[in-house]
Amino acid sequence: MTAPPHEALPAGPGRGLPDTQQGMRRRNLSRVLHTVHAEGPLSRAAVASRIGLTRAAVSTLVDELIRAGLLDELGPERPGRAGRVGRPGSALALSDRGPAGIGAVVGVDHLEVCAVDLRGQVRARAVRHAANRGRRPGPVIGELTALVRQVVTETEREGLWPAGLAVAVPGLVARDARTVVRAPNLDWHGTDLGALLPDDLPLTVDNEANFGGLAELWLGEGVPRDFLHVSAEIGIGAALVVDGRLLRGTRGFAGELGHVPVRPEGPACACGGRGCLEQYAGKEAVLRAAGVEPGEDRVGLLAERAAGGDKDVRRALRGAGSALGIALTGAVNLLDPETVVLGGALADLAPWLLPALERELSRRTTGPARAVTVSRLGPEGPLLGAAHSVVRAVLDDPAAVSGRS
């Protein structure tokens, strides 16, 4: 089993590996792989220059990574680079045939799985729309397992093999990174997904908002290393990233923004409280307020009607934006993030949510106004974050997977 994402995905290459000769080799393998990932294609000499090792040492490490199926040699570097003399070196790139990260999402109304290769390309995807609320975990995870098998089979046809499985869920996950402590919108309690999912893949389970925040950190454009990521589907979650790492709290439950009360005497929530943010800004709440029946792609319909000037829809979105702003006020005042990133289904509705949200933040927070940006990943964030977490684990400790080649 892999470690939880906050442990398996350190801030720097090879961090956390033992301080021994073997540990140093593993750290250097990671440094080479991270360098090619960040800047490649690069020659061996260029890698050596960037990480401060000799060309001979880097060449030995590169040969090991090529044998493990993690690096490819693409042929001679492009000529004409400034200052380059002598014969050009062979350019190195991450392999597009080696390990792949398998990411999955258990949603209230759907299941989805994808595979991402080391280069970050989505190589296979499968989705099943289903009403999962109130269903027993066994049948739901059985259907998810079938989708995982389908995606693994597709990737294996292309010469890839699964390095691990990461599953995003809409609920609290224990520190063991496999047990769903509580998922109110699914009505799951104390569910060990490790006992239900295939045992032939290293497994990590985490909250969907955490994976969405990690996706923003790794894949977002111009996102700082300190931000608060807000993700919404049926429920609403948040992930706080500080200096490039998730802030999880003592039990790993940090980020339950959806259950912050914005109107203490408001309607009852599935969590047992009243007046929670989800009752005003969750997807189902907004649909109800707008007079739109639930169904597939209802967010797209909301955006279409809002753009067309529908007064009921715009009023519902203003109310949701105001509730979001009130809930975010406490988090911003307490944690002082550099920016707030709006993701998940909310990203597609941002033009009509942001004015009321920013108005509440401006009125209620101390200091300068906080920037609120919109994620370009949108609803894809948790799925991509899950898959990329497996890829990042390979980059952080390539020696751990080299035996699979």
Automatic annotation (TrEMBL):
MF terms (GO), sorted A to Z: DNA-binding transcription factor activity
Xref: InterPro entries: ATPase_NBD, HTH_MarR-typ, ROK, WH-like_DNA-bd_sf, WH_DNA-bd_sf
All residue ranges annotated as the HTH marR-type domain in the record: 31-81
Domain of life assignment: Bacteria
Region (Disordered): 1-22
Family: Belongs to the ROK (NagC/XylR) family.
PANTHER family named among the record's database cross-references: BIFUNCTIONAL UDP-N-ACETYLGLUCOSAMINE 2-EPIMERASE_N-ACETYLMANNOSAMINE KINASE, ROK (REPRESSOR, ORF, KINASE) FAMILY
Name under which the protein is recorded: Xylose repressor
Origin species: Streptomyces ruber
